[in-house]
Structure formats: structure tokens, C-alpha cells
Backbone:
């Protein structure tokens, strides 16, 4: 199994940038597809981005496409989410998640492991 720890959240003005990191334990990290989800107060957890095991394929929610970039460094057991042109509606707790078997990138019910989340707040 794998443990996930997010970092890099904080307070930023609209139009600014943040880079989130998700550090994973375990030697089998490269066997996990990885995703980022977010949850704002009073709303359900929603898909943000996902990346395949090798990093060769990426997927994005329409709301962040063109602004966010997901990447991974398997040698360092880390997944990143580079966020640019941030908007107040991006404010949420951001979670990373891992899936080791059958995978639907945007389906949160298919992921096996979750981090504790990191808060992102975008002010206007």
C-alpha cells in the first residue's frame, strides 16, 4: 500500500500561481495512476486532473484545462499540480489519490488511497 501527503497550499491573489506536491511512500509508486480532486465547503468532491502510471497520458476537468498542469517524478515518488491564473472559484481543499488497478481517471470511487488534503485559498 501507499501513503500520500500533500503540501504547497496557501493563500494567493487571483491571477497568481501555486504548485502542489503529493509525496508518496512505498517502492511501487510507479504502478499507481494518480489524480487530484478538490472539495469546497458545501460542495461534493470533484475531479481536477489525473496522470497515467508512466506519465504519458493526462486528463483535466474542463474548469481547469489550460490553466493547471499535472506531472509526476517516479524517481522521487512525487506528483505535482502546477496551478496558474488562479480564480476565486478554485478555492478548495485539494486531495491527491492513487489507483493501482482498473482506472477511470475522473471517477473518485475507483481510487484506492487518499491524502489528507491541502487548503488553497484564492482572494480577489
Residues:
Amino acid at each position: 500500500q501507499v501513503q500520500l501527503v500533500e503540501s504547497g497550499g496557501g493563500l494567493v491573489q487571483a491571477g497568481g500561481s501555486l504548485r502542489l506536491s503529493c509525496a508518496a511512500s512505498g517502492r511501487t509508486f510507479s504502478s499507481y495512476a494518480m489524480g487530484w480532486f478538490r472539495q469546497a465547503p458545501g460542495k461534493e468532491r470533484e475531479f481536477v486532473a489525473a496522470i497515467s502510471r508512466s506519465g504519458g497520458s493526462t486528463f483535466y476537468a474542463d474548469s481547469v484545462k489550460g490553466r493547471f498542469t499535472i506531472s509526476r517524478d517516479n524517481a522521487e515518488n512525487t506528483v505535482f499540480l502546477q496551478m496558474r491564473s488562479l480564480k476565486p472559484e478554485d478555492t478548495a481543499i485539494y486531495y491527491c489519490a492513487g489507483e493501482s488497478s482498473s482506472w477511470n481517471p475522473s471517477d473518485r470511487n475507483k481510487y484506492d488511497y487518499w491524502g489528507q488534503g491541502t487548503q488553497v485559498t484564492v482572494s480577489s
Observations:
- The mean pLDDT is 94.
- The chain has no helices and eleven strands.
- The first strand starts at residue 4 and ends at 7.
